[in-house]
Write a structure and sequence with these properties.
Elements (H helix, E strand, L loop, with lengths): L1 E2 L1 H6 L1 E12 L14 E3 L8 E8 L2 E8 L8 E3 L11 E12 L8 E4 L5 E3 L7 E4 L1 E2 L6 E3 L2 E9 H6 L1 E7 L2 E7 L8 E4 L15 E8 L6 H14 L16
Parallel strand pairs: 1-11, 13-17
Antiparallel strand pairs: 2-7, 3-6, 4-5, 8-9, 8-10, 12-13, 14-15, 16-17
The structure holds zinc ion (ZN) (2 copies).
The site of one zinc ion has 8 residues, from loops.
Length: 248
């Protein structure tokens, strides 16, 4: 079953179809077509068991086994029910609500009982396994219990420090970016990752800092950048793409 990362974060209840064996409504569970007779088994005479004589190293011995004709029921159906083919029970699909716990990850199998109770490996016994696949999210990449994201800031913000809003599943968080942050730095907001499936607490939100550079600086921006370059004693190209002689 595919679920979204946000559903995996919060936990979710999903409706699924579960097959369940029910008493056949056509024959009422007898296995015989209505209006036909159920007869006493001619092989065992209704006892459900037969006695056989077998040869053993100790001589002939009597062995009691389940009747091969009626399989122990003692009765035989002359005309099997056409709905259940004489089984007395039919497999019916019925829809159950499955609670998918918060923190679930791709590859985890949930055991689902016919009542819809779901348990992680070794949970309540049931008759169906649900394989979970968590779909990728546009905003966050999951790494175990952590979530990874990135933020774009402009170079003055990286150089002088700033505050940015970071989206989490619990709303926006303010992240302090210290002065002198380098492109590619990784910052962290503790406890804003995925809830831990086993155990308490949550993973972290890791933020990759990307520093963007203006592709077409305005005239004023260019003028200021040239001043910064001069102050830093580095050579830069002028507007026409040539190097100016920088006074040293
Ligand atoms: Zn039936
Ligand atoms: Zn029998």
């Amino acid at each position: 079953m595919q679920i979204s990362l946000e559903d995996a974060f919060r936990g979710v209840t999903k409706k699924i179809e579960v097959p369940r064996l029910e008493t056949c409504p056509h024959c009422g569970g007898s296995g015989a077509e209505p209006g036909t007779k159920v007869e006493t088994c001619p092989t065992c005479g209704g006892r459900g068991q037969v006695q056989q004589t077998v040869n053993t190293p100790f001589g002939q011995m009597a062995q009691v086994t389940v009747c091969p004709t009626c399989h122990g029921k003692g009765k035989v159906v002359k005309t099997p029910c056409r709905e259940c083919k004489g089984q007395g029970r039919v497999r019916k699909q019925h829809s159950v609500d499955v609670k998918i716990p918060a923190g679930i990850d791709t590859g985890i199998r949930l055991r689902v009982s016919s009542q819809g109770e779901a348990g992680i490996n070794g949970g309540p016994s049931g008759d169906l396994f649900l394989l979970i696949e968590v779909k990728p999210d546009r905003r966050f990449q999951r790494k175990g219990d952590d979530l990874n994201t990135s933020v774009d800031i402009k170079y003055p913000q990286a150089a002088l420090g700033c505050e940015v809003k970071i989206e989490t599943f619990d709303g926006f968080e303010t992240l302090d970016i210290p002065a002198g942050t380098q492109p590619g730095s990784k910052l962290r907001i503790k406890g804003r990752g995925m809830p831990r499936l086993r155990g308490k607490g949550s993973g972290d939100m890791n933020i990759l800092v990307k520093v963007t550079i203006s592709k077409e600086p305005s005239a004023k921006e260019r003028e200021l950048l040239e001043q910064i370059a001069k102050e830093m004693k580095v050579t830069v190209k002028n507007k026409e793409g040539f190097f100016d002689k920088i006074k040293r």
